Amino acid sequence: MLFRSFQGPHNWYKAFPKCAGKNQSPIEINEKDTTRVNLGNLKLEGFFKNDKTSISRWGVANDGLKVYINLEGTYYISKGGLEGRHKAYNLYFNWGRVDGRGSEHKLDGKFYDGEIQIVSYSMSAQKQSGFVTMIKVVEKDNPLLKELINAVKKVKYRGEATNVPTLDNLADLLSPDFGNFYRYEGSRTWPECTTGVTWTVWRTPLEMGRAQMEEFRGLYNKEKGTADNIHIADTVRPLQPRDGRKIEYNSQHNYRTDVEASI
């Protein structure tokens, strides 16, 4: 990644001018400053084990800045006020060195312990999108994350990759409540900081056990055997100005509970 050599996100604009533009992400979202809307429920396809459109295999990798997952199969998100049908291509994980930081977005004055971003795109609408789940560290392990954590243990150093062969629900890596989310227009949170991204930020965090989070915090930013290796953490872009943007808040029945009850 070219932007590694530019000494942090405050200098990205030197090579990527869009990073100094308006309507950038991430931002702080305060519910009191949002506009209540009725966008209806999102529709997620391929995210549940009874949905035969998905393939149960992920490629998990350490790129020295984050852990990312390449999604093989067909995972789509639509409706809920979105233009078109958005295909999910990747998931990115951010986390902090300690609790209370690690997320890129900030909700009601609070940074979370980590953040998961889905990178997605709609061919029909020619529209980029992103979906955010906050991570909250709790004392007890989340059993739904077992396979993911086993994979993370195998990508200790930059450049290492592995597969998660046994996947039931991709939804297990998302917010437990699909019905409550914020919506705004922003940018990618890494260079080239491209704007025109429709962000959906779920309000309810995913819980991750403390020992599980420590597996992320134990990953290294360089290849195995490098002398100056340090642990990956806090590789987040600072908050960006709101620039007068409208932020919507959509509150619906959590239809995820209905889907899972039928599985």
UniProtKB/TrEMBL annotation:
Residues 1-251 form the Alpha-carbonic anhydrase domain. InterPro entries: CA_dom, CA_dom_sf, Carbonic_anhydrase_a-class. It is an enzyme of class 4 (lyase). Its EC number is 4.2.1.1. One of its GO terms (molecular function) is carbonate dehydratase activity. Gene3D superfamilies: Alpha carbonic anhydrase. Pfam families: Carb_anhydrase. It catalyses: hydrogencarbonate + H(+) = CO2 + H2O. Keywords: Lyase, Metal-binding, Zinc. Belongs to the alpha-carbonic anhydrase family. PANTHER family: CARBONIC ANHYDRASE. This is carbonic anhydrase. The lineage of its organism: Eukaryota, Metazoa, Echinodermata, Eleutherozoa, Asterozoa.
